[in-house]
């Protein structure tokens, strides 16, 4: 793709964290932006703080509203015309043990992180095919490549995204559609505070690993570079990225390392 400058980009989960920093950075690249999340008021604050607010369209989005995605995609296209890139960044994490977690929590994690992302992506896919151009950038997690305690449902949803979008890339390469999977490790966001606990309530507290993670603006810049290079997969983090290679070549060693880390 080359430079991302002046592209039309739709960013979900843009009201905070990585999504907010992506919006700010993309605005500095003179992109036309559609920014989405459930929190409309915070989206307007993001728009106001960007370099080119006149080129930003606020479009509230609830990933659990699967049936409403076609209408949202139509509204997004009415803002600036054809969309070049959809950054699927919205989602929610989890912090609870399997034997203590209500089944409803697993359903919510799949409805939001997996099915919501799939529903939105399927709704925009016909436009990408018609234009013979389009780029899905799906922000999953290192947890989409290997697992860690307290995150069973989150890991499952993120693994599912990799399976779906790997096939999306294969089936629609002929249509000019590209797919980049972005796998962040620890980033200084509210992901841990907002994570669902055993009964579905948010955890409401941070953890040391997240506090010591990458700055979200650093993560955003790395993600934009991966988009410009049209990478199949990009790993964003510090030492935790080594887990990708341990999983591939030394899975039993990774098992021991993760348990010893006692990361919550």
Automatic annotation (TrEMBL):
Can you cite an annotated GO cellular component?
membrane
Q: The organism sits in which domain of life?
A: Bacteria
Q: Does the record's keyword annotation contain Oxidoreductase?
A: yes
Cross-referenced InterPro entries? KR_dom, NAD(P)-bd_dom_sf, Sc_DH/Rdtase_CS, SDR_fam
Q: Which UniProt keywords apply?
A: Oxidoreductase
Ketoreductase domain location: 7-207
The UniProt family comment states: Belongs to the short-chain dehydrogenases/reductases (SDR) family.
Q: Which NCBIfam families match?
A: PRK06181.1
Name the record gives this protein: Short chain dehydrogenase
Q: Which organism is it from?
A: Flagellimonas nanhaiensis
């Amino acid at each position: 793709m080359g430079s991302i400058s002046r592209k039309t980009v739709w960013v979900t989960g843009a009201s905070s964290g990585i999504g907010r920093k992506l919006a700010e950075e993309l605005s500095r690249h003179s992109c036309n932006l559609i920014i989405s999340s459930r929190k409309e008021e915070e989206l307007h604050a993001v728009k106001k703080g960007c370099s080119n607010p006149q080129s930003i369209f606020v479009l509230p989005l609830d990933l659990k509203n699967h049936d409403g995605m076609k209408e949202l995609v139509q509204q997004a296209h009415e803002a600036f015309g054809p969309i070049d890139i959809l950054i699927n960044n919205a989602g929610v994490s989890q912090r609870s043990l399997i034997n203590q977690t209500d089944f409803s929590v697993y359903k919510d994690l799949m409805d939001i992180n997996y099915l919501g992302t799939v529903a939105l992506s399927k709704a925009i896919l016909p436009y990408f095919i018609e234009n013979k151009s389009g780029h899905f950038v799906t922000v999953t997690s290192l947890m989409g490549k290997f697992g860690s305690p307290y995150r069973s449902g989150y890991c499952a949803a993120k693994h599912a995204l990799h399976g779906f979008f790997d096939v999306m890339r294969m089936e629609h390469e002929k249509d000019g559609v590209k797919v980049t999977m972005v796998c962040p490790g620890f980033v200084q966001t509210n992901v841990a505070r907002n994570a669902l606990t055993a009964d579905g309530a948010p955890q409401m507290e941070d953890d040391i690993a997240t506090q010591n993670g990458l700055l979200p603006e650093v993560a955003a810049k790395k993600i934009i570079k991966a988009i410009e290079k049209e990478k199949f997969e990009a790993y964003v983090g510090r030492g935790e990225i080594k887990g990708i290679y341990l999983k591939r070549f030394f899975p039993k060693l990774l098992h021991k390392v993760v348990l010893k880390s006692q990361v919550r």
